[in-house]
Amino acid sequence: MRVLVIIPTYNEALTMPGVVRRVLDTTRGSDHEVEVLVVDDASPDGTGDLADELAATHARVHVLHRPVKDGLGPAYRAGFAWAMQRGFEVCCGMDADESHDPADLPRLLWALGGADLVIGSRYVPGGGVRDWPWYRLALSQGGNRYAKSVTGLPVADATSGYRAFRVEVLQALNLATVHSDGYGFQVEMALRTWRLGFRIVEVPIIFVERTAGASKINRAIVFEALWRVLRWGLHGPRRAGPLNPASVLLVDRH
What we know:
Oligomer: single chain
CATH class: Alpha Beta
Number of helices: 9
Strand content: 15-25%
CATH architecture: Alpha-Beta Complex
Distance between the termini: 19 Å
Largest sheet: 7 strands, mixed
Shape: globular
């Protein structure tokens, strides 16, 4: 199975190289063909240049340079398009700030044997968060409860950015119509996946607060998520669609 790990970056020069190397180390000798795509939004701190250096010395590393800082959602959509054009079968998302442990990646990929989208979840048994201030934890937990209550999405951690999609899901989602960013982007992708009748599974992860760099979350991203989630809840079904014909669960029955 060809797997692409997409790592969006903006000013992550202090942590991105280490994350990429750990992904390579963790997946060396894996049953899957795992490659990495760094999607850099013209970072002024040289993140893109460091990614180019990694790509020059590691055949499994690639770099997609975007001309401006345009947000998480557009970066992931560009990465997904890059992957689909090159025949990858699975697309994973991972933060560049060392909050997501690359050692968890094999568990996410293993869970794809019975799911179409696997989410690395902080809020299921066995998961958790380390070193966050109380207000960050309250914002994250409150946002997830809000998304679940408004839309009916039965996911404990819909805002998690650590996830693995089967490419059939991305092809069905019509990514050109996904316009949200930040928390909203992650929620929208999970919500659309569920409504289209694909199977979502959560596996526990421990999320660790970044040790370098600055968080990209701001009030605008939070407010965007709040009103978009409300709109999705008001204008969409509060239930999963019939099992999608492209779901791994249905395909495996044939």
